[in-house]
């Protein structure tokens, strides 16, 4: 639940073209989070142009060199992050 709340808080604050009804739903969800643990379905509309822009930025990431044999010692594994980026760009909906 904390990750969902953090995600929704950041989504609410960011400059994506989230319509007013969706912002109201997010605000209501964040307000009610402390009162119930029930999962409620809600729809969120983000303009396709915003999603296309996000996918374009993911595609254009300039990756640093990977530190050999570092595992996760210096942060996220580069190969894992690349896989995750591909998933977000091509499969996540």
List low-confidence stretches: none
**Would you report the number of β strands?**
0
Beta-strand fraction estimate: under 5%
Largest sheet: none
Output the helix-strand order.
HHHH
Average the pLDDT over all residues and give the rounded result: 76
Q: SS-based structural class?
A: mainly alpha
Q: Bin the helical content.
A: 40-55%
Count of helical regions: 4
Evaluate the radius of gyration.
17 Å
Mass-distribution shape: elongated
Distance between the termini: 20 Å
Question: Can you characterise this structure?
Answer:
With 93 residues, this protein is mainly α. It has four helices and no strands. Helix 1 (2-13) runs antiparallel to helix 2 and helix 3 runs antiparallel to helix 4. The mean pLDDT is 76.
Which SSEs are present, and which pair or pack?
Blueprint: H1 2-13, H2 20-32, H3 48-59, H4 78-90
Helix pairs in contact: 1-2, 3-4
């Amino acid at each position: 639940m904390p990750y969902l709340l953090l995600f929704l808080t950041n989504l609410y604050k960011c400059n994506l073209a989230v319509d007013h009804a969706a912002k109201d739903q997010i605000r209501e969800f964040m307000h009610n989070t402390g009162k119930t643990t029930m999962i409620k379905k809600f729809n969120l509309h983000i303009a396709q142009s915003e999603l296309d822009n996000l996918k374009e930025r993911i595609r254009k990431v300039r990756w640093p060199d990977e530190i050999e044999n570092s595992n996760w010692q210096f942060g996220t594994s580069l190969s894992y992050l690349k896989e995750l980026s591909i998933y977000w760009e091509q499969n996540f909906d």
